[in-house]
Every structure is written in structure tokens, then in C-alpha cells.
Amino acid sequence: MCETNDQLGDEIRAVVEQQLQRSDLEEVSQAVDRLMEQGHSREKAIDTVGAILLEEIHEMMTKNEMFDRERYVERLQEL
Q: How far is CA 77 from CA 23, 34, 35, 63, 66, in A?
């Protein structure tokens, strides 16, 4: 089970890294920068954003919804 969790964590980190490269999701970069300014390491900031991404994925799966960019951005801005 731990190996599965580690693999999922790696995949989520990879998605966040991809989002950091996208100009249409500058809120991800802003959230990572803000967390690092608060004293978090880059790795911890990526993991924190990844946790928000997992929350959004959970919402999508449990409620059979499409990705809600507005909700995702609001959650990022609350960090």
C-alpha cells in the first residue's frame, strides 16, 4: 500500500510541475511562490498544492463532475 501511495504522490507532483509550466494556470505558480515566501521548501510547497489538486480530483470522482478551475483556484488562493 505504501508503494502505491508513493507512486500516487510522485504522479501528483509531476502534474503540479506541469501546471507550473502553463501560463493559463499562473495561480499554481503564485501559490508555490507564496508558500515558499512563508518559509516552506519548494518540495513542501509542491506537495501542498498537490493536496489541493487531490481534493479537486476527489470532487470530480465522487460527484461525477468536470474539473472546476474556479474552485481549484479559490482553494489555491486560500493557502
A: 17, 9, 11, 23, 20
CA distance 54 to 23: 21
**What gap in Å lies between CA 19 and CA 25, rounded to an integer?**
6
Q: How many CB atoms lie within 10 A of CB 68?
A: 14
Cα gap 74→79, rounded to integer Å: 9
Give tens-digit pLDDT for 17-73. 999 999 999 999 999 999 999 999 999 999 999 999 999 999 999 999 999 999 999
Question: 79 and 34 in contact (C-beta within 8 Å)?
Answer: yes
